[in-house]
Amino acid sequence: MMPLLNVERLSKSFGDHQVLKSIDLTVASGDVTCIVGPSGSGKSTLLRCLNYLEVPTSGAIYLQGEPVGVRWRGDKLLRMSFNELCVQRQKMGMVFQGFHLFPHKTALENIIEAPVIVRGKSKAEATDEAFHLLDKVGLRDRANYYPKQLSGGQQQRVAIARSLAMQPTLMLFDEPTSALDPELVGEVLAVMRQLAEEGMTMVVVTHEMAFARDVADHLVFMDGGIVVEAGDPRDVLTNPQHGRTRTFLARVL
Ligand code: ADP
Ligand code: MG
């Protein structure tokens, strides 16, 4: 079967600093892939390249077989127009470490914004769906709260609901719990675990090793812009093959 996401020899440089060095990555539909690795290893850059927030220097990304960020015109591969890119990006929901909610909009208004403005849905239909999503993340009773009236964990759950409102094919998470007080991490991971159980395809950059071990189908260890080691999380975590993986795990486990 065709993988949902296929990354081939992806490289990214900033000036003469090569941050990603020929990354290969395959994600099957419904799978959860966790990416771990030391700070500065290129995890965020990889995630941002996947939806073309960063333009790769070389290599290719395919989502459901379609090249990301570029398209064929005749026998030439051209960069997509901004509008084409926006349409493609809607297939990839992204959740960041900081929650990036619109501060002057309530939880409900944050969630219905894109479906109404971008998709042209009626406010009534978008609101119905938003309440369904608020239920899913356990925040129906917070619909009319503003971000500053919510805890970090609640804000991140609203951010997840907001991404889901665009019905993405793939969800990308960049350290979604790293900015949270420790007691709030669990509620966000619980929502992500539930999403995974419902079959959402997810790529998750995280330092939460228990989540990676229990939820991920595939664990990728990155260091210095390369995939050092990847495989079943239980294998990688209990029996790492590379010294760099062992050194990293000894520090975080
Ligand atoms: P990680 O998420 O694993 O901590 P990043 O992908 O954020 O790593 O960063 C990897 C490297 O790329 C770092 O050395 C960082 O300084 C560099 N980098 C990231 N973004 C930029 C940018 N926009 N311009 C220049 N260097 C960058
Ligand atoms: Mg990062």
UniProtKB/TrEMBL annotation:
Q: Please indicate if the UniProt record lists Cell membrane as a keyword.
A: yes
PANTHER family linked to this entry: AMINO ACID IMPORT ATP-BINDING PROTEIN, L-CYSTINE IMPORT ATP-BINDING PROTEIN TCYN
Q: Which family does it belong to?
A: Belongs to the ABC transporter superfamily.
Q: What is this protein called?
A: Arginine transport ATP-binding protein ArtM
Localisation: Cell membrane
UniProt keyword annotation of Lipoprotein present: no
Keywords linked to the UniProt accession: ATP-binding, Cell membrane, Membrane, Nucleotide-binding, Transport
Q: Which organism is it from?
A: Rhizobium grahamii CCGE 502
How is this protein positioned relative to the membrane? Answer: Peripheral membrane protein
Q: What is the lineage of its organism?
A: Bacteria, Pseudomonadati, Pseudomonadota, Alphaproteobacteria, Hyphomicrobiales
**Residue ranges of every copy of the ABC transporter domain listed in the record:** 5-249
Sorted alphabetically, which SMART domains does this protein's record hold?
AAA (SM00382)
Q: Which Gene3D superfamilies match?
A: P-loop containing nucleotide triphosphate hydrolases
- GO MF terms held by the record: ABC-type amino acid transporter activity; ATP binding; ATP hydrolysis activity
